C-alpha cells in the first residue's frame, strides 16, 4: 500500500509464517553493497560447538536470531557474513555426523537459505549458491526438488519488475506449475502472496489478480478450514484488481438507513470513496473533493462514500462538522462496521482512502482518483459538458 494510506491490520501475507530463513530485518535501509576496505575480524563471532546434531541445529537457530551489534551498513553486512559462515560450518559438522534424510534436508535448507540471503549483499555467496544448486540438481527426492525449486523461484522473484511483460507472465505460470506439481509450502506461499501485494500497486495490477486467484485456488485444495478467510480475502482483492474497464457493483444501506440506489447514478461520473473520519489521509482529501463537486456537480459529477467508521456517531459528527453533502453507505449492523464493511470486504480493501472513479456508463476508469489525478480525470471527462445536461 502507498505510505499515505491508512492500512488495515489484515494482510494477505499471514497465511503461513515463513521459517528457515535468516533474520534479514537488520538489512532494512542498508545499501545493497558492503564496504570491502576493512579487513575481516580475526576472532570467530560464532564459534561452532562440538555436540549432537540436535545441539548443532539449536546453535544455528541461536545464530540466526542474534541481531547485529550496530545498525550501520558495514556492521549489518559484516554480521550477516559471520552468521552465514557459522551456519555453514555447523551444517558441515552435521553432514559429517551421518544425519538421517530429514536432518540432511534441514541442513541443506539452512545452507541454501544462508547463501541466498547473503547473495543480496555479497556476490561471492551467489557462487556458493549456484554450486549447491548444481550439486543437487539431479537429486530425485521430492523434498529436495521442492526445496531447490522453491528457493530458485524465490531468488528469481527479486528481478520480477526488471523483466518484460511476457517474462513476468511466464514467471507466474512457472511458479504455479511448480506449486501444482509439488504442492504449497511456506516458501511458495510467501513468494506468491508477496508478489501479489507488490503487483497491487504496480502498473499491471491485473497480473496481481491472476496471482491472487491462482494462489486462492491452490489453497482451496488444502483441507484446512482455518485457511478459508485468507482464500476469501485473496478472491476479494482479485475482484478489486479486475475492476478497471468493468462495471462496479455498489450495494448496501445508506447511513440514514435507506436502501442505496446505484442505478440512479448511471449517466454520472461517480467517485466511490472508501474512507473513515479517523483516517488522516482521508480527511486531507475532503477539501479537494468538495471543490471538485462544486466545480463539476452541475455537469454530472457525484460522490458516493463507503464509510469505515466503527460507530454512527463518529461518522455523523464528522459529516456535520465538515458539512458533507454526498451519500455515504454504512451498515446498520454494528458487526459490519470498520474494516468489516460489506463493500470493503467484497473488494478486499486494506488501505484507505481508496478512491475509485466510475464513468457515465458505470465502468471503472481509475483506481487512484485522488488529488491531482481526480482533477485531471474530471476535466477530461466533464470539462466540455454543459451544466444541466447530465441528467437522464
Spatial strand arrangement across the major sheet: 4-3-2-6-7
- Cα shape: elongated
Biggest beta-sheet profile? 5 strands, mixed
Which stretches are low in confidence, meaning pLDDT under 50 for 5 or more residues running? 9-42
CA distance, first residue to last residue: 38 Å
Residue share in helices? 40-55%
Indicate the mean pLDDT: 88
Strand percent estimate: 5-15%
Rg for CA atoms: 26 Å
- Structural class of the secondary structure composition? alpha/beta
Which sequence of SSEs, written as H and E, runs from N to C?
A: EHHHHHHHHHEHEHEHEEEH
Count, helices: 13
- Please tally the β strands and state the result: 7
Q: How do the helices and strands line up, and which of them pair or pack?
A:
Layout: E1 6-7, H1 53-64, H2 73-96, H3 101-118, H4 123-136, H5 142-157, H6 165-182, H7 186-200, H8 205-220, H9 228-241, E2 269-275, H10 280-296, E3 301-307, H11 312-322, E4 327-329, H12 342-346, E5 351-352, E6 354-358, E7 364-366, H13 371-382
Parallel strand pairs: 2-3, 3-4
Antiparallel strand pairs: 1-5, 2-6, 6-7
What does this protein structure show overall?
Helix 2 runs antiparallel to helix 3, helix 3 runs antiparallel to helix 4 and helix 8 runs antiparallel to helix 9. About 9% of the residues have low confidence. The two termini are 38 Å apart. The strands form 2 sheets. This protein has a 5-stranded mixed sheet with strand order 4-3-2-6-7, covered by helices on one side. It has a two-stranded antiparallel sheet with strand order 1-5. The protein contains 13 helices and 7 strands. Helix content is 49%, strand content 7%.
Amino acid at each position: 500500500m502507498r505510505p499515505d494510506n491508512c492500512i488495515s491490520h489484515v494482510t494477505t501475507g499471514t497465511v503461513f509464517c515463513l521459517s528457515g530463513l535468516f533474520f534479514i530485518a537488520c538489512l532494512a535501509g542498508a545499501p545493497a553493497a558492503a564496504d570491502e576496505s576493512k579487513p575481516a575480524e580475526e576472532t570467530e563471532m560464532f564459534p561452532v560447538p562440538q555436540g549432537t546434531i540436535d545441539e548443532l541445529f539449536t546453535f544455528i537457530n541461536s545464530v540466526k536470531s542474534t541481531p547485529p551489534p550496530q545498525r550501520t551498513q558495514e556492521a549489518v553486512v559484516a554480521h550477516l557474513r559471520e552468521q552465514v559462515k557459522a551456519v555453514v560450518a555447523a551444517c558441515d559438522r552435521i553432514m559429517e555426523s551421518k544425519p538421517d534424510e530429514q536432518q540432511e534436508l534441514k541442513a541443506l535448507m539452512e545452507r541454501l537459505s544462508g547463501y541466498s540471503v547473503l547473495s543480496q549483499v555479497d556476490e561471492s555467496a551467489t557462487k556458493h549458491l549456484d554450486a549447491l544448486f548444481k550439486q543437487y540438481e539431479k537429486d530425485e527426492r521430492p523434498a529436495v526438488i521442492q526445496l531447490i525449486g522453491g528457493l530458485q523461484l524465490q531468488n528469481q522473484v527479486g528481478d520480477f519488475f526488471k523483466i518484460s511483460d511476457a517474462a513476468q507472465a511466464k514467471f507466474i505460470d512457472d511458479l504455479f506449475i511448480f506449486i501444482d506439481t509439488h504442492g504449497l509450502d511456506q516458501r511458495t506461499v510467501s513468494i506468491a502472496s508477496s508478489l501479489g501485494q507488490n503487483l497491487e500497486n504496480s502498473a499491471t495490477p491485473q497480473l496481481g489478480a491472476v496471482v491472487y486467484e491462482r494462489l486462492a485456488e491452490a489453497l482451496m485444495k488444502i483441507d484446512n478450514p482455518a485457511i478459508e478467510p485468507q482464500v476469501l480475502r485473496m478472491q476479494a482483492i482479485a475482484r478489486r484488481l479486475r475492476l478497471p474497464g468493468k462495471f462496479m457493483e455498489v450495494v448496501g444501506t445508506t447511513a440514514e438507513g435507506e436502501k442505496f440506489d446505484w442505478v440512479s447514478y448511471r449517466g454520472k461520473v461517480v467517485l466511490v470513496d472508501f474512507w473513515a473520519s479517523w483516517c488522516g489521509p482521508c480527511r486531507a482529501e475532503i477539501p479537494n473533493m468538495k471543490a471538485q463537486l462544486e466545480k463539476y456537480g452541475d455537469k454530472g459529477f457525484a460522490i458516493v462514500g463507503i464509510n469505515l467508521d466503527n460507530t454512527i456517531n463518529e461518522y455523523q459528527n464528522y459529516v456535520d462538522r465538515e458539512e458533507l453533502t454526498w451519500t455515504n453507505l454504512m451498515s446498520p449492523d454494528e458487526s459490519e462496521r470498520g474494516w468489516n464493511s460489506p463493500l470493503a470486504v467484497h473488494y478486499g480493501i486494506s488501505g484507505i482512502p481508496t478512491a475509485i472513479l466510475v464513468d457515465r456508463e458505470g465502468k471503472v476508469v481509475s483506481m487512484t482518483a485522488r488529488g491531482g489525478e481526480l482533477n485531471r480525470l474530471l476535466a477530461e471527462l466533464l470539462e466540455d459538458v454543459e451544466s444541466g445536461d447530465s441528467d437522464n
